[in-house]
Amino acid sequence: MARGYDFGWIPVLLSLFTLTDASSQTVNQELSNIFNELWKLDVNRMEPLTNYNISLQGKAGYIPQGSTNVVDHASSPLFVNVDEAKLSSITTYARFMKLLDNYERSTGVAERVTAEEVTENNSFLDAILETAVMKRAHQYLIGKGKSRSDLRQFKSQLYYMWFRLYHRERNGGEDSSGFEHVFVGETKFGREIMGLHNWVQFYLQEKQNLLDYKGYKARANDVPDADDHVLNVQFSWHGLVKPVASAFVGVSPEFEMAVFTILFLTSTEKTTTAVVNLDEYQLEMVVHRHGRCIGTAYPKLLSSNNRHM
């Protein structure tokens, strides 16, 4: 999400305030219900301690946005191991991973989309549309009058929202898309990390020594566990630091596409936030729109392990 030069500290303070006071927010029960349905349908979700292992290590400290002066509270990577054979054997993950090298990292640099990349985008959408998760999400959106029942029209709607290129910076050509921002990550003016809210990309970048996990972010009474499926973390990427980032861990790409698509299409607000209870977590789900496209989308962990109940 773009920030003004003079007021970039305001969203950071607001996010920190939100993180400290989950109990005061009203839970959106309808979204909680549909998201929990999708959670139960997510048969491609990876299981912690079985399909992957993480090492949380230390709690990260506060650093201001744009600073690279950070104390590392995690000497080892977040991901100890991931069953890559299993990842590659599942069609949605395999096709998802093919998309991760299709983008220019820096905003302001125009994207050039090849015919092969368009084919890869379409193949990924075809794969997720065959899953029970996306079928239920589509059904829900039809019931809300937000999507057509025709599958080709729904696929076109998804393509526009997630893959259509747009200008994130005023200079240069079309340099960004919702998919790139949320799942791949971008850098702004060589000073700031934007997006990168996906655990598979996090793991692959960490494996290539391009990303360095600095520690988890949490309130004192809500320390995360190694089997949690949502985390707030701090990390550096290509020499830049993201003070706080939040992401699902282990969930399938179709689950993330489904929940953020529902949140995006059932609201017309520039920025949509909804507090939901999902499995054992309380989350603030956030979607920011860029016209008719996704600007950013992420889950913000408010409370885990039913401590909010």
Structure notes:
The two termini are 31 Å apart. This protein has helices at 9-20, 29-41, 84-89, 91-97, 115-129, 132-143, 151-163, 178-184, 199-207, 253-265; strands spanning 52-54, 79-82, 186-188, 192-194, 211-216, 230-237, 240-248, 271-278, 281-290, 293-303. A three-stranded antiparallel beta sheet has the order 5-6-7, with helices on one face. It is an alpha+beta fold and 309 residues long. The protein contains ten helices and ten strands. Strand 9 and strand 10 (293-303) form a beta hairpin. The relative contact order is 0.19. Helices cover 35% and strands 21% of the residues. Mean pLDDT is 87; it is low at 1-23. The protein is globular and about 50 Å long.
Set down the secondary structure blueprint:
Layout: H1 9-20, H2 29-41, E1 52-54, E2 79-82, H3 84-89, H4 91-97, H5 115-129, H6 132-143, H7 151-163, H8 178-184, E3 186-188, E4 192-194, H9 199-207, E5 211-216, E6 230-237, E7 240-248, H10 253-265, E8 271-278, E9 281-290, E10 293-303
Antiparallel strand pairs: 1-2, 3-4, 5-6, 6-7, 8-9, 9-10
Structural category: alpha+beta
Unreliable residue runs: 1-23
CA radius of gyration: 18 Å
Major beta sheet summary: 3 strands, antiparallel
Q: What separation lies between the terminal Cα atoms?
A: 31 Å
| Tally of helical runs | 10
Considering DSSP H and I runs of 4 or more, what fraction of the residues is helical? Answer: 25-40%
Tell me the strand order in the biggest sheet.
Answer: 5-6-7
Shape: globular
Mean pLDDT: 87
Number of strands: 10
- Content of β-strand: 15-25%
| Element pattern in H and E | HHEEHHHHHHEEHEEEHEEE
